[in-house]
Known about the structure:
Layout: E1 9-13, H1 18-29, E2 33-38, H2 53-64, E3 70-74, H3 80-94, E4 99-102, H4 117-145, E5 149-154, H5 172-195, E6 200-207, H6 218-226, H7 229-232, H8 246-257, E7 268-271
Parallel strand pairs: 1-2, 1-4, 2-3, 4-5, 5-6, 6-7
Helix pairs in contact: 1-2, 1-8, 3-4, 4-5
The protein binds nicotinamide-adenine-dinucleotide (NAD).
Amino acid sequence: MAGRLEGKVAFITGAARGQGRSHAIRFAEEGADIIGVDICSDIDHTGYPLATREDLDETVALVEKLDRRMIAGVGDVRDRDSLAAVLDNGMAELGRLDIVLANAGIMPTYGEHADEVRAWQDSVDVLLTGVMHTIELTYPRLLEQGEGGSIVITSSMAAAQPMARTLDGKTLGLFGYSAAKAAVINLMRNYASILAPYNIRVNAIQPTGVNTPMIQNQMIEERFATADEQDVLALVNALSIDAVEPVDISNAMLWLCSDEGRYMTGSAIRVDAGANLR
Ligand SMILES: NC(=O)c1ccc[n+]([C@@H]2O[C@H](COP(=O)([O-])OP(=O)(O)OC[C@H]3O[C@@H](n4cnc5c(N)ncnc54)[C@H](O)[C@@H]3O)[C@@H](O)[C@H]2O)c1
């Protein structure tokens, strides 16, 4: 049976691990070829390690195991030229572009440097400006191709509700993260509006906690060992799980990007295990 994305090519930022890797695999399972980009190095003072080149190579190997192609390269969403180099190379190899997943992210929310302006700025640079670069770079390619397309931005439930309830819970990194995740919903709606006449659809997903290295790390462990219970309660799922799995987000992305989502544009979809109810 033909996959739901047969013949499509997806560009995924932050593809080395976590949700980005899961999207690459899930989309490849449905017949897509992948262009993947990741910074593959740390950003100082983020508080936990980012992905490595080995992680990115592992994603490529996992996609190739599914008999799909993946062209991957190192690039930083803060630097449009580095993204363009990976995209150009991928499109030269794979011949087209249909889907864009603006997924790369950092969460410099806790630890020694989290209340510095730097943590705010890094959050905004990666999570907001990085998404803008990703879309600015890719939508002209979709327009030129003339066959429509689907762009999905990874926002967060942090956009929907306060992530801290006490003074102790506040850091500029956390506020920068939340503000950027809210701002990309506004950005999504503007791009969705201007691109709708060309059948290029733009949506966002708002996950609750997702089981990836972004939250499975020493920074988070240490923070939650000492956090005020009020702050721990800031994001709690209604369903009885601590976090959803990356594939739960991939499946929502897949629905948006397949024909099943053909009339979806301008929406922010919560995959939040009912966190909005608490
Ligand atoms: N994990 C969660 O609980 C959660 C919840 C809601 C939203 N999100 C969002 O989901 C997205 C994916 O995160 P994840 O959970 O897979 O975390 P992750 O840390 O496992 O993956 C993020 C990836 O982005 C890459 N990256 C970071 N900065 C980059 C940059 N400047 N340029 C290119 N690549 C960069 C990292 O190297 C890493 O591979 C992020 O936007 C994150 O904010 C995560």
